C-alpha cells in the first residue's frame, strides 16, 4: 500500500499544486480536506502542478469528519510545528497517511490534544516558526519513503517521470491512469 498525504483545509494554491506534483512523482494519493481556500480550477494551482494533475490520485473530502470516516485513524500521523516529538520518531508504515494542517492555522489544536503520541514536528533552529507547507510535506514524505523502503525508482534517460516499481518485478514506466474521485466509505 502506498503512503498517503492529507492536507487539512489548505489555503495557498501553489503549495497544494507543488504537493500534488510531489505526490504524482512518488505515486502517493493526495487527500484534500475541505473547505479549501481556493478552487481546484484556479490557474495558480494548475500551474504549480504542471501537467501532472492527471497522474495524481486525488481524493476530496467534504470536511474533517468525512476524512476521518474514510481513513483508518491508526494509519494517520500528524505533522505540526507545535508538536513536541520530532518526525524521525514517527512510526511510519507503508500505508501511513501523513496529515498536515493549513498554511494559516496549522494543525487544529483538537488533533494535537487528542493524538499527542501521533503528532510530530520537523526540528528547526533559529527564528523561523514554521516551514512552507510544500517543503514540510516533501521532507516528511521522503523520510517516510526511506523508512518504509517504498520502492520509488529514479527515471531512466528519456523518462522524465519517476515511477514506483512493483516489488518482485522490474520497474515499469507505465503511466498512471487519471483518478479524480471522492472517497469511498471505509
What does this structure look like?
- α1 runs parallel beside α2 and α1 packs parallel to α5.
- The chain has a single domain, classed as SPOUT methyltransferase, trefoil knot domain (Alpha/beta knot, 3-Layer(aba) Sandwich).
- The protein is globular and about 35 Å long.
- It starts with a strand and ends in a 5-residue tail after the last strand.
- 27% of the residues lie in helices and 18% in strands.
- It is of the alpha/beta class and 186 residues long.
- The C terminus is likely disordered.
- It has five helices and ten strands; from the N terminus they run βαβαβαβββαβαβββ.
- The strands form two sheets. It has an eight-stranded parallel β-sheet with strand order 5-7-4-6-1-2-3-10. It has a two-stranded antiparallel ribbon with strand order 8-9.
